[in-house]
């Protein structure tokens, strides 16, 4: 619409000197040749400083005029004296310009200049999250660094944020979100967690105590190929985007691809299935990158994989009903974490082993990390319980992240206080 | 795990057996009723099946019920019949999460390939009048549209549902509850993931009629199943649902040996029900 184009031009102009406070845009529709002539004559009244957005053409065609405040009264009187009716299209041009400018600055698709103006209550694209990561690091160079731990099947970088107060190869806590790309509230929560750590790392006693001795690693988009696909093609895509000869189907379930009871009950050997475990363990570069990282680091003490939905806090095992040796302790930690989570908004969670609480799942991350000796290995299933499921409204991102953070802090603090 | 050189102690083995019995559906001796942990997936699954059935039978898009918490669950193996679950749980208002009410239900998963047999009784938290009002409100919203209602991707990628499409979405939940109830087994559960498309058919009588393509989320397979559903509704009357679900994966088989169902070529119809 022409008005918007002109408005944009005004915005450009407005950013420099001029202001349009009190200016109005009037619309006249001349119905006769006489009226048209009268409107033509207005153009000659230079003292009025009228700005014709739509010039007079023919009877029946609208004429739009921007009128400075000082000319409003005289012009309206002139029109009324000549029996020319008009309507007020824009009551205050500056107000509209201001609103449009604010909109343009806030709109998530526009360039965001700091993590303070980033919208945490909306879902973002991969590019926006990667930009956020760079901004966060730039703003907090003494606490945060970005590691590239590998590249995806489609050659996208796999980024991990490291939060550290220093030291060398300190014990560490690992958190990943978005391994299943359709679980959008998880990547969104990961972004929020990153900002939260940066905001609270000095003033929050619990977090400060953790960071004094322990590093935190956070992989926000664990499956970037899948995530990009959920934005462009299929919002409900779960797997990676790898292909293997022998099948036209795409993708491997990254949480069935780990080397723990790989290929046993609780995963599918059909490449077209959503729980396809892949041709062999760690076939997926997204998974191998984490496996290599964890193995090379050698000092990870807690490993937390975040999924949605179902509102569950789970620990090993998924591949078997056999209780994990540390089942009692893990159950107690889970109970404390869930209590903390529920305290904020009353969100209720169930907790227990993966096998008993959700379903049998083989080749999953937490079974592998647990059997590697990372005792405090947990999987979260965030909001909700099926009402919106994967399509959780953006308005629930922050409440979800806030309550989950309380549970994460319980696990992190427990890890700090119970070294092994 | 590499083979252990020594056999595990007998007590540990016994504990293992007991625990496996608790978790695997097959193990109970006929007639024996065994207790399940309220947080067990089998208990939650059975409670959800009962709720699918309730939501369809109640035929009230304005007062759909969601699962609150399972309080108590036991299961019994009935010879020549199947596994029967006895459940005590709370439900809450689907939309607001409030109005918790208590329910008692039995869910029998038959050995044959037929839908679960459900008996459910819940405490009434809203009176009939309130329920009627809610449904009438939704009904009027639909009737007041000047053009046949159509829509796509409800909710959208960001979880938004346009206000004008809310009643139509709630109806989809009520209608798909019928599909989900019929398809549920002891090991296979469903959620309605999204309304892919909806188109209203205008009728001469007072009934509202819609054609839906809905997406069901199947667990534990994680598959997204596309179903076509034709639904008619008038407040105070039973829901009429006809459906046809596409079979997502031909010849799907997985390590746990579950069957994949296919409704290809079969149209299920459920008419008015007393």
TrEMBL record, chain A:
Stored InterPro entries: CARBOXYPEPT_ZN_1, CPA_M14_CPD, M14A-like_propep, M14A_act_pep, Peptidase_M14
Source organism of the structure: Strigops habroptila (Kakapo)
Signal peptide limits: 1-16
Needed co-factor(s): Zn(2+)
Catalytic residues in the record: 381
GO biological process: proteolysis
Molecular function (Gene Ontology), one example: zinc ion binding
UniProt protein name: Carboxypeptidase A1
Entry superkingdom: Eukaryota
UniProtKB/TrEMBL annotation, chain B:
Domain Cystatin LXN-type residues, every copy: 32-130, 150-254
InterPro entries assigned to the protein according to its UniProt record, in alphabetical order: CYSTATIN_LXN, Cystatin_sf, Latexin
Gene Ontology terms for molecular function: metalloendopeptidase inhibitor activity
Signal peptide: 1-28
GO cellular component terms, semicolon-separated: extracellular space
Keywords: Protease inhibitor, Repeat, Signal
UniProt family annotation: Belongs to the protease inhibitor I47 (latexin) family.
Listed name of the protein: Retinoic acid receptor responder 1
Source organism per UniProt: Strigops habroptila (Kakapo)
Gene, per the UniProt record: RARRES1
